[in-house]
Amino acid sequence: MNNRKNSGKPTLLLADDHAIVVAGLCHLLQPEFEMLGTVGDGWALLNAAAKLNPDVIVADISMPLLNGIEAIRRLKKVCPRTKVVCLSMHGEVAIAAEALNAGASAYVLKHSAAESLSEAIWKVLEGGIFISPRIARDVTGAVLESSHRKNGVSLRLTQREREVLQLVAEGRTIKGISSILQVAARTVVFHKSNIMDKLGLRTTADLTQYAIQSGLISICIPGSEYNSERFA
């Protein structure tokens, strides 16, 4: 059963931490879909999805606090029937494959959003899969082979370690991470040490570079100012 409101249009929730992108997406998609609201980080996405139960979520990969891939893994438990479309600037095959393996039904490159995003949304609503044509063949191959790969970040790190990895790479302090995750500071230090051992990294700079290359964070991380939730 879908969650269509009185308009009869499929309902949509947007997750992106760039206000200009959000404004453009709203303008692009409002004629065809009912916009339930926007959020600016992964944790806000989970909260809004549980409250609104949208038909489709369009989510950026590199969001602060909790990246899109980690949010997608949790969304399957929060609202299992909601379809997720990843909208990303990252054209790397491994990142796209990771998103699809996490539970996304589509992966759309931002540079082609104007031409492809609406098509991708309708396709996933019909039960299909959509991948931007530029990377479709390679991503499909990577997804098919993923069960044989042992070097993906999702296979090497625990859920908590992935959370700590992102927050450390965003430049947050041990105390700040402790507060966000609601765990003891010594627990954060323990996880950080485990992450660096597992990935063979020696410094926080190495860890940050790894997170950027893995698509977990953007090269430019915003501070504490995110889009607040706006619910219709």
Write a short abstract of this structure:
The protein is an alpha/beta fold and 232 residues long. The chain has helices spanning 19-29, 42-52, 68-78, 93-102, 113-125, 133-145, 153-156, 159-169, 174-181, 185-199, 204-213; strands at residues 11-15, 34-39, 56-60, 83-88, 106-109, 130-131, 230-231. The chain folds into two domains: 11-147, Rossmann fold, CATH 3.40.50.2300; 153-213, Winged helix-like DNA-binding domain superfamily/Winged helix DNA-binding domain (Arc Repressor Mutant, subunit A, Orthogonal Bundle), CATH 1.10.10.10.
What does this protein structure show overall?
Strands 6-5-4-3-1-2-7 form a seven-stranded mixed sheet, with helices on both faces. It is built from eleven helices and seven strands. The protein starts with 10 loop residues before the first strand and ends with a strand. Strand 4 (83-88), helix 4 (93-102) and strand 5 (106-109) form a beta-alpha-beta unit. It is an alpha/beta fold. Helices cover 50% and strands 13% of the residues. It folds into two domains: 11-147, Rossmann fold; 153-213, Winged helix-like DNA-binding domain superfamily/Winged helix DNA-binding domain (Arc Repressor Mutant, subunit A), CATH 1.10.10.10. Helix 2 (42-52) runs parallel beside helix 3, helix 4 crosses helix 6 (133-145) and helix 9 (174-181) packs across helix 10 (185-199).
